[in-house]
């Protein structure tokens, strides 16, 4: 049971919490709206408050995935990050500003939830996988009912579009944020069979250097905007520039047991 109103024609009575709304973390999948789950779509169609994160002055990526479904702006709330890439995530100003931003956002959502309105937070890929949703979930989960709807992850969409299985047999897969320092990337890449390197942006040259040093460059595939319009899949070895947008990652497929 998920606490949402039943579909038209359904007779089953769903139990609803008496006083408060439910906080939904909605996995939006990797970009192609056809990869939304049935449950995600149902919640998007019915929740009275729909929340998405965005850059100042820009539209949120997770929100864009819902274009085919959403047409009622009065239900929507955009939460604009105070910073994205302007400061290092460990800079004290960044930490303080983000904490205040999430505290304020949690307060605004608590007002809706406390008044009995369900709130759905749109989350790219899967909400519990490097999702901003998690910062609001942490602040609200002990006060309100929560339902997290898993989504197809970005990496799953990317290796599918690249046409490359990522792990075979006993292969160990390591997921790395490109923001890690070069020696850490190198150590982790040397110790794994397969890898996914996310959050590339301006870190692409460093990741390329680590892959080269680890002897993995020839296996590395660069995927930009996997499953979305403007998708690009190319062996990293022949990508001759260092440009990488937010929605990009590098895959290093495993080569394990294949009887
Ligand atoms: C903050 S993480 C969010 C991950 C997301 N929750 C998920 O389940 O995939 C953002 C990173 O995910 C990766 N990513 C997510 N979707 C992608 C896509 N469709 N194509 C390429 N990269 C993607 C990029 O590396 C991006 O920098």
From TrEMBL:
Keywords: Cobalamin biosynthesis, Methyltransferase, S-adenosyl-L-methionine, Transferase
One annotated GO molecular function: precorrin-2 C20-methyltransferase activity
UniProt enzyme class: transferase
Domain Tetrapyrrole methylase intervals: 22-238
One example of a Gene Ontology biological process annotation: methylation
Any matching Pfam family: TP_methylase
Pathway, per record: Cofactor biosynthesis; adenosylcobalamin biosynthesis
Its EC number(s): 2.1.1.130, 2.1.1.151
UniProt KW S-adenosyl-L-methionine keyword: yes
Positions of the UniProt region annotated as Disordered: 1-20
Coiled coil residues, start to end: none
Keyword S-adenosyl-L-methionine: yes
Family: Belongs to the precorrin methyltransferase family.
NCBIfam families: cobI_cbiL, PRK05990.1
Listed name of the protein: Precorrin-2/cobalt-factor-2 C20-methyltransferase
Source organism of the structure: Methylobacterium persicinum
